[in-house]
């Protein structure tokens, strides 16, 4: 089932990419999708809207239209979300967002990096992380930021199959294991 959902998300993402490319709205749609990704991370109500089988197609369509109107989404994004709602495919939105942003990065020659921090990073900190990753990777990097308070401090960075974990949580776990081994 997971592979079917991933294939579905990839097909929808590619269709959205091609439409956005035709309308010269790649960056606008990417910005909208990034905002939606952030909303998915922060709002349980939005997650319920896209996942609930109880809500009718009309209710989901009205909900996403109102949301898009509120944050001033590109008309293409609004129409796309309406199509997802009418086809009962809103559940695939997180995968579609990921697939679209990955396709955009791939076609631009960028490498996608996932950065998790304990607190929200300032613009200067984001720029510093992006610059450091660009030096290490050797090409342009698109950074997806998430906040995970359980990290306590530090960062977890994933670029492709590589992961760098400098979080305080992991350091404390290593210290705890080391102390258990001594006693």
UniProtKB/TrEMBL annotation:
Its main location: membrane. GO terms for molecular function: proton-transporting ATP synthase activity, rotational mechanism. Keywords: ATP synthesis, Cell membrane, CF(1), Hydrogen ion transport, Ion transport, Membrane, Transport. It is found in: Cell membrane; Membrane. InterPro entries: ATP_synth_OSCP/delta_N_sf (IPR026015), ATPase_OSCP/d_CS (IPR020781), ATPase_OSCP/dsu (IPR000711). The keyword Electron transport does not apply. The keyword Cell membrane applies. GO terms for cellular component: plasma membrane; proton-transporting ATP synthase complex. It is a peripheral membrane protein. F(1)F(0) ATP synthase produces ATP from ADP in the presence of a proton or sodium gradient. F-type ATPases consist of two structural domains, F(1) containing the extramembraneous catalytic core and F(0) containing the membrane proton channel, linked together by a central stalk and a peripheral stalk. During catalysis, ATP synthesis in the catalytic domain of F(1) is coupled via a rotary mechanism of the central stalk subunits to proton translocation. Belongs to the ATPase delta chain family. This is ATP synthase subunit delta. It comes from Thalassobaculum litoreum DSM 18839. The lineage of its organism: Bacteria, Pseudomonadati, Pseudomonadota, Alphaproteobacteria, Rhodospirillales.
């Amino acid at each position: 089932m997971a592979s079917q959902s991933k294939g579905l998300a990839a097909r929808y993402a590619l269709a959205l990419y091609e439409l956005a490319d035709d309308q010269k709205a790649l960056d606008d749609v990417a910005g909208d999708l990034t905002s939606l990704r952030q909303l998915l991370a922060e709002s349980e109500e939005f997650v319920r809207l896209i996942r609930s089988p109880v809500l009718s197609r009309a209710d989901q369509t009205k909900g996403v239209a109102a949301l898009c109107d509120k944050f001033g989404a590109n008309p293409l994004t609004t129409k796309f979300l309406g199509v997802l709602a009418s086809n009962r495919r809103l559940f695939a939105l997180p995968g579609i967002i990921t697939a679209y942003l990955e396709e955009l990065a791939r076609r631009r020659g960028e490498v996608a990096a996932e950065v998790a921090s304990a607190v929200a990073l300032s613009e200067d900190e984001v720029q510093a992380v992006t610059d450091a990753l660009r030096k290490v990777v050797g090409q342009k990097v698109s950074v997806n930021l998430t906040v995970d308070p359980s990290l306590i401090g530090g960062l977890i960075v994933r670029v492709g199959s590589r992961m760098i974990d400098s979080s305080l949580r992991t350091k404390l776990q290593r210290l705890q294991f080391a102390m258990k081994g001594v006693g």
